[in-house]
Amino acid sequence: MITKVYLIEKARKLPSGKAAAYYILRWSDTRGQMREESLGRAKKTGGKITAARAEELRGAKEHDLAGGRALRDRPQEFTLSEFVEFHESAESFGRRQTTIGEWRTAITHAIDALGDVRLDRVSAASAGTIRAHMDEKKKSAATIRKTLATLRAMFNNAVKRELIAKNPLNGEKLGPPPARDKRIFEPHEVDEMIEAAPSQWWRTLIRLAYTTGLRKGELLHLRWSDVDLDTSTVRVQARRAGTHVEGDDAAPVLAWEPKTAKSTRTVPMAPEAVAALLRLQVQSDGSPYLFLSRQRLRTLVLRFGDAAITSSRLVTDTNKKFDKIQDAAATELRKQAEKAEQDPPAWCRGCFHDLRKSFGTRAAAAGVPMVELQAHMGHSTIVTTATYYTDVIESAADRLRDVFEAA
């Protein structure tokens, strides 16, 4: 019996609000269940799949099904690695690359702990095995929780598609995300970190993060064409995949979407940030990006392909390198205190994202209205800005005390 495969064109709305068309293959398997596979975005809406290519792939799929070779027609035989491919093809419409990256990372942790077992062999005890394996690898409690939560959501989708009878992780109690103290960096601490930074690349990245409040992913995807040095502003905006040509040399341009619809914005830069950019520009190798060299871009595309490059892959070990910079800054501040015969200052490590939180806190303390700060930071709601990105710092507390003393 020949299974008929249908080619369907579906309209989807991207996170940026733009419309896009996707080609989808649809057929019924031997159990009568409807199956789908995405071929990707149509070329006429900025993708890579032409109508002729889509029809060619439809014919190939129909041929595979007729020969019983199509993996999608045998869901009961999915291994974990095969399942994540199926999950991505079925669920990736309109999803951010960071979300797709989380799916792959979660399955990778599961395979490391359990082996590439069949999907129906994952049991309730598997969560404990995964947790123990990640704990042995010194993964944080937040990372372990995120992995198990992602796996549970993926397995729920597998149940809905009748790939497995029940979700093996439904009974796993994850609890609330572990709380982490917010680290607000003082200006002199940031200056010391910039002094301790090993390169102009790091000095500029830290300076921009602290004085603009941009997210790490936004900074890493910044292109020189987004920077207007005359007005001292930088533009955060979506990018399509393409090629940047300069002379006889060409460099890839990565597709990227901002985190939220309100994340597309123009951000002013402080004079010291502009000066740091000018110094960085002198060292640029002609890459279209501020913080990605042409060689790094080519290596990423060759290794992962355009569609699989997430912000976490752009620069590896960012957190570890930032920790080393903080340690060097703390050591220098202690030396200065000892020389001045003062008590050495305490230094609590923060993560790179705390530079953004430090910006939000200091801007709010300086009197920037919350609605303006929300727009500047690109948050969907003002609640996010008020809850996670502002705090009472010492100068603000002093002003509050002055109010009562004046009364």
Distance between the termini: 89 Å
Work out the helix count. Answer: 16
Biggest sheet, spatial arrangement of strands: 1-2-3
Helix-strand category? mainly alpha
Number of strands: 8
Q: Based on CA inertia axes, which overall geometry fits?
A: globular
| Oligomer description | single chain
Word description of this protein:
With 407 residues, this protein is mostly helical. Among the domains are: 187-315, no CATH class; 321-406, no CATH class. The protein is 48% helix and 11% strand. It is built from 16 helices and 8 strands. It has helices spanning 51-66, 80-91, 97-114, 126-136, 141-160, 187-196, 200-212, 216-220, 271-282, 294-304, 311-314, 318-339, 353-365, 370-377, 382-388, 394-406, and strands at 6-13, 19-28, 34-41, 227-228, 233-236, 242-246, 249-253, 265-268. A 3-stranded antiparallel sheet has the order 1-2-3. Strand 6 and strand 7 form a beta hairpin. Helix 2 (80-91) packs antiparallel against helix 3 (97-114). The radius of gyration is 25 Å and the shape is globular. Residues 68-75 have low confidence and may be disordered.
